[in-house]
Design a protein that fits this description.
By secondary structure, this protein is of the alpha+beta class. It is built from 13 helices and six strands. The strands form two sheets. The protein has a four-stranded antiparallel beta sheet with strand order 1-2-4-3. It has a two-stranded antiparallel sheet with strand order 5-6. β3 and β4 form a beta hairpin. Bound molecules: zinc ion.
């Protein structure tokens, strides 16, 4: 672990230098722009200088141009850029909502955010007026990437597409999300034809109980069902257990699961070396702190939520790797990052 700690210190140093260098670059670029030195070199703007002379991509040039222009007006941005509280992508979102006199209140709201989170803050501050509510279906001509899962309809994907260019970044679920207002998001999802057929079938099925249901309400109803089924399977639903009598000996009673789930906030409580907890919400399992095999009771005080990676890691620590290898196929190795 000490080696990992040493490497972490080294990485933190390198990161700090990267952030410092970026801030230095932007300060120099702001000065360059203030002097309109790009015009002296025959460029029509700072953007074209960055793109043509420094050979940055158009996207990278745009981010740096916006940041350089903004720090000319607001030098307070340099310090948070230098220490990493702000990054280029959050500055671009900040720029959309900055007004004379509001920077002091606004700035901390953008600290340590991803581009998506910064876009959400910006949308809450300045919502899109009359957000578009249409669904547009278009056929995509490009072939399906070979990396996608096997799908009979895959060579004919269909896109439910918004009518404006997307600004958001892809989520792990490979969809783009654009914040429109504090509560409205627009998503861009590529789906198989089969998906649209199911959506239509669901609309037909709901035509009596929910006439005129929107795509959103149909999908949300489906998600509610899926989540309710998941909660029921994991014994964490709101419904009280029938006197707890159905619980097999040694199993965790449903009421204990509900209590632990609520207490642990529905995320992995594995303590991290540098403080805090893992916090993963994927593949969660109930873990006995004092193992069941060693007399640990199935009571809330002895049960915690762990992601599968950390649950298996703790089992290896208790029972040893050899024994666990006989029971599990997934081998968590400390030297590799957790996928959880
Ligand atoms: Zn975890």
């Amino acid at each position: 672990m000490s080696n990992a700690r040493d490497l972490t210190i080294r990485l933190a140093e390198l990161l700090s230098r990267e952030q410092d260098a970026m801030a230095e670059f932007l300060v120099a670029l702001a000065d360059f722009d203030r002097k309109r030195a790009w015009a002296e070199l025959g460029h029509s703007s700072l953007f074209w200088f960055l793109h043509r002379e420094l050979r940055l991509s158009k996207g990278a040039a745009h981010y740096r141009k916006v940041a350089a222009e903004l720090i000319q007006k607001h030098s307070e941005l340099v310090a948070p850029l230098r220490d990493g509280r702000l990054c280029l992508s959050t500055v671009v979102e900040l720029e959309k909502v900055i007004e004379p006199g509001n920077l002091a209140e606004l700035l901390p709201r953008f600290f340590h955010l991803s581009r998506r989170e910064a876009a959400e803050v910006a949308a809450a501050i300045r919502p899109v007026v009359r957000p578009p509510m249409r669904d547009v279906v278009t056929v995509v001509a490009t072939p399906c990437p070979s990396t996608t899962s096997v799908d009979a309809d895959c060579d004919n994907p269909v896109v439910v597409q918004p009518h404006e260019p997307l600004l958001g970044v892809g989520s792990p679920a490979a969809s783009a999300v654009v914040p429109l207002t504090e509560n409205l998001r627009r998503i861009h999802v590529t789906v198989a034809k089969r998906f649209l057929a199911k959506l239509d079938a669901a609309r037909d099925a709901l035509s009596h109980s929910h006439p005129g249901a929107t795509n959103e309400s149909i999908l949300e109803a489906g998600l509610d069902l899926l989540l309710a089924r998941h909660r029921k399977r994991r014994g964490i639903g709101a419904r009280p257990a029938r006197n707890g009598r159905g619980t097999a000996p040694g199993r965790i009673p449903a009421e204990v699961k509900r209590e632990v789930w609520a207490r642990d906030g529905g995320c992995c409580r594995w303590p991290l070396d540098g403080g805090g907890v893992c916090g993963s919400t994927l593949r969660l399992e109930f873990d006995h702190v004092v193992p069941r095999g060693r007399g640990g009771p199935s009571e809330a005080a002895n049960v915690r939520l762990l992601c599968r990676f950390h649950n298996q890691l703790t089992a290896r620590q208790v029972y040893g790797g050899d024994l666990m290898d006989r029971f599990t196929r997934e081998v968590p190795r400390v030297s590799e990052p957790s996928a959880a």
